[in-house]
Amino acid sequence: MSANIELDVRGVYKNFGGLQALNGVNFSIRGNELIGLIGPNGAGKTTLTNVLDGVYKPSSGEVRLNGRRIDGLPPYEIARRGLGRTFQVTRAFRRMTVMENMLVPAMALHPTARQRDFHAKAMEVLEFLTIEHLTNEYGRSLSGGQQKLLELGRLLMLDPDIIILDEPFAGVHPKLMETIYEYIRTVHEQGKAFIIISHDMDSIFTLSKRLLVLNFGELIADGDPAEVKEDPAVIEAYLGEEEEEGVPAVIPAGRLAEGPALSEAEGPALSEAEGTEEAPDA
Amino acid sequence: MKRLPLLWILAVGLLILALAAPVLLRNQQYWLFIAIQAYFWAMLASSWALLAGYAGQFSFGHIAFMAIAAYTSGILGRDLGWSPVSGIIAGTLMAGVVGLFIGYLCLRLRRTYLALFTIAFAEIFRLAVNAELDLTGGPMGLYIDYLLDTTSYVPYYYIMLGLLLGSLGFMYWLANSRFGLFFRSIREDEEAAAAMGVHIVRYKIMAFVVTSMIAGLAGAVDHHLIGFIAPTELIIGRMSLVIAMAVIGGVESLLGAALGAIFIHFSLEWLQQIPVPASLMPKLIAMQPTLEKFGLGVGDRGLMTYAWRMVAFGLLLMLTLRFWRNGLIHPIIDRLTRQRARKETVAKRVQAAEVESS
């Protein structure tokens, strides 16, 4: 199945009023790639996710999944076609049991199936995520970390080709981090492509085999993580050097470019990225 | 496992009681009428519970949908000579069509905005019916043909009971099918549901259409029994009563909401005049002047409460909302059905904790 995965993002622009959140983004995914997506706050990472997932319609440009255009389609249609995502803030269905949470995507995807047909698969996934003992509990009675795992499990029931994880490591206990690493590696080996958005540079450099860097809505780097790390443009974006003419004047607008949708939980700011970038290989 | 038979015994007992009620109430057509009205409210409250409790669409338009079907059926019968049965079918479909339209308009509205929108819709509908004279009869109301050519309430009783059980059965099937899963996922988090592939547009509208049709069916049949409908039935207070019934019964439980409605309707009737033993009546009559100062009165059988019964229910509603968010009846049902699942989970949790600590 991995051989068939194709995502093409061609010249995608997205503006909110006068603010350019995405400024001509181009990239492609072939097969089960494991991609890290980084960039300073307000660079457009979540906007890009929302465009891919159908929450936003791009102002121009096109997105193709497995050869068919998906830009402008509603999120539920894109989800069925094989693109799944998590949100920055965990969004488990709180007043539904863990099993019911798991069955929602399965039933959405297989309209003629019966719920009990998916119990076994759901249990398998829950066991893999070490939360099988919580099957009959309501989502709201799970801890934050368990809800995060539930969200990852729910995503597997949708059986997407491409999985976008928005800040999967934010506020996560080290032990849980291991489980999430394990999840990503295993699911990746099963043939799924990943785009992981994170401010956690250690995780990004540990996991990803390809790195995309967004800055002011533009993809400023795309390639092997080790090379991207040395890229002067990337260093500049993170350290905020003001050498390029005209850039400083644009910064305030660019910072705002992603609009209110992002302001809620973009996580720790530049300082953390700077702090961890020193020792990515450790 | 031991709990399940108890639930079944209770359910079968209630069913036998409901079926035997006309025999038990043989000489009291009045209480039979009250029972029919209780079933009417139960259909409204349980379908509203499906819309608000399951699908999370807190609509104030339910009474309006009820009335749309009643008016449609009444007008078709008066102007075009349609039989009550075909009028009821047309009225129910009409409620569904308007439900579709309102559901579509409400797609992008959440919580407070949806509530405000549906209040506006219901009030505009009431005012339009009130202002219009030729079609609806305006404030004078509309006379509607009787469904059956009989003076007995017994056949009506079984019709309404059948409709209630039928609609409850249908809604139970719906709530336990994948549609129920989708409804609840939309209630919990619309964006997350969409990201999980749930066609949120389709299922939100579906919730509106199905519940509007059940409300419409109840309204059309009930008004072919009463023989009359007027805009005063559309006041927001009656909508609040539906909500109160569902909330006190348990808004996330169809059966809870239905039983809540039946319980409240009977209580409200009974509380109109709280019966007092005949031996105490002279004492009560002696207290009459004092009681009247407090807005109470003395009837021929006991204490008249007038508006105070509504105050009592307002308080009960507030207490329920504050202390028993799942209502008063639903927790009992839940206890009877979920006990086993709970125990299993707890056992597994204990196991897991042991494994972790060892």
Describe this structure in words.
The complex is a heterodimer of chains A (282) and B (358). By secondary structure, chain A is of the alpha/beta class. Chain A has helices spanning 45-53, 75-80, 98-109, 119-128, 144-158, 174-189, 201-207, 225-230, 232-239, 247-256, 260-263, 270-277, and strands at 6-16, 19-30, 34-38, 60-65, 68-69, 83-85, 162-166, 193-197, 210-215, 218-223. In chain A, a hairpin with a 2-residue loop joins strand 1 (6-16) and strand 2. In chain A, helix 3 (98-109) runs parallel beside helix 5 (144-158). Chain A is globular and about 50 Å long. The relative contact order of chain A is 0.18. Chain B has one domain: ABC transporter involved in vitamin B12 uptake, BtuC (Orthogonal Bundle), CATH 1.10.3470. Chain B contains 15 helices and five strands. In chain B, strands 3-5-4 form a three-stranded antiparallel sheet. A two-stranded antiparallel ribbon of chain B has the order 1-2. Chain B starts with a helix and ends with a helix. The A-B interface holds A 53-55, 74-76, 79-80, 84-85, 87, 91-96, 100, 103-105, 107-109, 111, 115, 132-137, 139, 154, 158 and B 178, 181-182, 184-185, 187-189, 191-201, 252, 341-342, 344-345, 348-349, 351-352.
CATH top-level class of the domain at 2-90 and 160-174 and 186-272 in chain A: Alpha Beta
Number of alpha- plus pi-helical segments of chain A: 12
Radius of gyration of chain A: 19 Å
Strand order of the main beta sheet of chain B, please? 3-5-4
CATH class annotation of chain B: Mainly Alpha
The major beta sheet of chain B can be summarized as: 3 strands, antiparallel
Number of E strands of chain B: 5
Shape of chain A: globular
CATH fold description of the domain at 2-90 and 160-174 and 186-272 in chain A: Rossmann fold
CATH topology of chain B: ABC transporter involved in vitamin B12 uptake, BtuC
Q: In this structure, how is the largest beta sheet of chain A organized?
A: 6 strands, mixed
Q: What level of helicity do the residues of chain B show? A: over 70%
